[in-house]
Specification:
Helix content is about 50%, strand content about 15%. By secondary structure, it is an alpha+beta fold. The strands form six sheets. A five-stranded mixed beta sheet has the order 1-2-5-4-3. It has a four-stranded mixed beta sheet with strand order 12-14-13-15. Helix 6 packs across helix 11, helix 8 packs antiparallel against helix 9 and helix 25 packs across helix 28.
């Protein structure tokens, strides 16, 4: 115990140290960039936090307030504004001290309270798995959920101080906290370009995750430093001389790989420490953009470059705004040394990333350096910050660039899924599994029932309710965002349409055979194999199913195929039934033909109701086999159908309505009314009373002041139902006339 305490004896007492660390003076020295009023605001936040945390201690035994002060100090180094520093001081107040958000709004204003609230929400997010893809999604979601970039910066400052003091935490918690830091916070720091924080967090996490490896590598690096001191000194001298001769003013910094990056390189490439050659490097800071390339030319004359080890991040910056020229050269004694050339502005961005705009704003917003921050991305961030002072808009811009199209949502089992921005529940269902997508019938977001077309937002918990049978809706194609969902829906609809077309083709071929005196289709088995081979050679199809599908789609004429089948059957000795032929001919022109194909509305994509005349049950109809379109049903009096009969009569077949249609059918109504208040509502009410489903309402442009024409799309069961609707609407006050609208026919009467 004495050995542990002895180092403290020569220093001030622990109480004195704690008092100094817990005082506002520890922060004051870093606030020289702020106005007196801002400093006063920060001081008032400090006093409030100090009082809120009174009596609380950290694991080290220090007063708890030392932690918020350390977080605020880090934020002050980034030159963040007063609101951010106030939030840094108050960031644990809601979580640990029972302070409420309304209290903070009243005391310090809404912006500060929002920052603290954002930090508290991030604190509550739990990261439960060690899977790397899950960690990637989690950190992206963390970035996406923060409404203000300052929340993330304060969070990183908070994590940095916690990592610096991790040794005071019980050792059994080291691995979890260090892993979480490496998985989540280190990549965020890197993504935002906070290089200094990134390197420090990496090394602190490595030290606590693998203490023995860290200690061994640190010892090896210290020894190597001693051995290579001569090389570094010689390179430094040669660089000074070369740049002086070229009259290029430069500042040269030595750079050493972090222990963690050395460890990762050894681990990934299975190298020993001695085989890691690029431990040392140099940063060369020059006066301007052109000087970067000139400096590189000087270096390439001094030492030989390694082929393939040159990278131009000035012309093509990294996504986090980083810019530099990188080149690896073979220095004295065959040592590989990496050099980085950059301007002063690029250096600030490289070290501070997203925080660079506050650094410049704090020092001199109008300086040349501020205007030449380098990358278009960071410059645009600066512009937004200068113009609007709106942190939320600023962060939106950052998010759009970091993750242009991503939102992060949870499954009910807390798995995180990344979806494109604007994605809907149907996209989410297909992303989980195509079977879930095909059978989706309803959904909940965060426990509330919502339509399937609802857009997803960051942090939503999505639950998809599925039906027993797959039934994708063609209307989904109008709102899904992902290619996967779109292709799966189309594939299912196409498969379904082909299946329906095959069934229709079988019905039509059976009907055509009846007309030729054969009562049923030859079976698809060994006994009829040779017959079907000959039919397929005749038609050019690969299989019986293909032939039936083609008949259903109108690509083959059923009567022609039927005649060929009869001819082949006659060759095998089978005779057509004369009675069947005469019955088919006798009923051919009857109003209800036994040979007619019955339509009930359940046929799907293989049977379409013509848009030109919109037939409904009760109308006299005929069927047209369009080439590749399947069967199109027209009314007998449709002008379009009459033209097709004249031109293409062999493609028409007898069709009729089933006695029990399986769904409702759409038709049009034209209602002429006296213009007046509430007339549309009265007409709609009359239609609703007659159990009509209104699908569309349109007012004709040529309406006069006295009268107006209202066009309705309505779903009806049949002509009897339509007549009842028309009678109900006619009885409505202000209605002058009602008539069914059939575009391909001359307008009929009132019903």
């Amino acid at each position: 115990m004495g050995a542990l305490l002895s180092p403290l004896l020569a220093k001030p007492t622990p109480a004195a140290v704690n008092a100094a660390a817990a005082s506002f003076a520890a922060l004051t020295a870093k606030l020289d960039y702020m106005s007196a009023a801002d400093v006063d605001n920060v001081r008032s936040a400090y006093r409030y936090a100090d009082e809120a945390h009174l009596g609380q201690l950290r694991n080290s035994g220090e007063p708890y307030i030392t932690h918020p002060i350390a977080v605020a100090q880090q934020c002050a180094e980034w030159k963040l504004d007063a609101q951010a520093l106030m939030a840094a001081l108050l960031h644990d107040a809601i979580e640990d001290c029972g302070v409420t958000k309304p209290e903070l709004i009243e005391r310090f204003g809404a912006p500060v309270a929002e920052l603290v609230d954002g930090l508290t929400k991030l604190e509550k997010l739990e990261f439960n798995t060690r899977e790397e893809n899950q960690a990637e999604s989690f950190r992206k979601m963390l970035l996406a959920m923060a409404r203000d970039v300052r929340v993330i910066l304060i969070k990183l400052a908070d994590r940095t101080h916690n990592m610096r003091t991790l040794s005071d935490v019980p050792r059994d918690k080291w691995a979890r906290i260090a892993s979480e830091t490496l998985d989540i916070y280190v990549p965020i720091a890197h993504r935002l370009g906070l290089n200094t924080t990134y390197r420090e967090l990496q090394d602190l996490a490595f030290r606590h995750l693998h203490p023995w490896r860290y200690a061994a590598l640190a010892k090896a690096l210290t020894r190597a430093r001693g051995r290579r001191r001569d090389v570094i000194k010689r390179v430094q001298g040669e660089l000074d001389e070369a740049f002086e001769s070229a009259h290029i003013p430069v500042r040269i910094y030595g750079r050493e790989k972090t222990l963690y990056s050395i460890y990762r390189k050894m681990d990934d490439k299975h190298l020993s420490f001695a085989q890691v050659t690029d431990i040392y490097g140099f940063r060369i800071i020059v006066g301007g953009l052109t000087a970067c390339y000139t400096a590189m030319g000087v270096l390439h004359q001094l030492y030989k470059p390694m082929p393939g080890r040159f990278k131009d991040y000035i012309a093509i910056p990294k996504i986090n705004g980083y810019q530099s020229l990188h080149t690896t050269l073979i220095g004295p004694f065959g040592t590989n040394i990496e050099f980085q050339m950059r301007t002063e502005a690029m250096h600030v961005v490289a070290e501070s990333g997203v925080a660079a705009h506050w650094l410049y704003k704090a020092t001199d917003p109008d300086s040349d350096a501020s205007q030449s921050l380098g990358t278009q991305w960071l410059q645009s961030l600066l512009d937004i910050q200068q113009e609007t002072r709106d942190a939320a808009e600023f962060w939106d811009h950052v998010k759009i660039d970091l993750f242009p199209d991503a939102v992060y949502v949870f499954t009910p089992k807390s798995k995180i899924m990344a979806m494109p921005r604007g994605a809907t529940i149907v996209d989410f269902a297909y992303a989980i599994h195509s079977d879930i997508g095909d059978r989706a019938v309803a959904a909940k977001i965060n426990g509330e029932q919502v339509p399937l077309r609802s857009e997803l937002h960051n942090g939503d918990v999505i639950e998809v309710v599925t039906g027993a049978l797959p039934n994708p809706n063609p209307a989904w194609l109008g709102f899904v965002r992902t290619g996967r969902a779109r292709s799966k829906i189309r594939h299912h609809l196409k498969t379904m349409a082909l299946s329906e077309s095959q069934d229709l083709g079988e019905k039509m071929l059976t009907q055509a055979l009846c007309a030729e005196g054969i009562d049923k289709l030859p079976t698809d088995d060994e006994t009829s194999r040779h017959l079907w081979e000959k039919i397929l050679r005749f038609s050019g199809n690969r299989s019986r199913a293909d032939l039936l599908t083609d008949i259903g789609l109108g690509k083959r004429i059923a009567s022609i195929v039927a005649k060929r089948i009869v001819k082949l059957l006659v060759e095998t000795g089978q005779r057509p039934d004369a009675l069947l032929i005469s019955r088919a001919r006798f009923t051919e022109h009857e109003s209800v033909s036994q040979g007619s194909l019955l339509i009930d509305g359940s046929e799907g994509a293989s049977v379409q109701l013509a848009k030109c005349c919109k037939p409904i049950p009760g109308d006299s109809i005929m069927g047209y086999l369009g080439r590749g379109e399947g069967l199109v049903v027209h009314t007998d009096d449709c002008a379009m159908a009459k033209r097709l009969v004249h031109r293409d009569s062999e493609r028409f077949i007898a069709v009729d309505w089933s006695d029990e249609p399986s769904r409702s059918f759409e038709t049009g109504l034209l209602v002429t009314v006296v213009n007046g208040k509430g007339v549309l509502a009265r007409v709609a009410a009359a239609m609703a009373a007659a159990e009509a489903d209104i699908t569309q309402v349109d007012m004709a442009q040529e309406s006069t002041q006295d009268a107006a024409e209202l066009r309705f799309g309505v779903s009806v069961r049949d002509r009897v139902h339509l007549a009842a609707i028309i009678r109900g609407v006619k009885r409505t006050p202000s209605v002058l006339r009602v008539q069914r609208v059939k575009p391909g026919i001359q307008s009929g009467g009132a019903g």
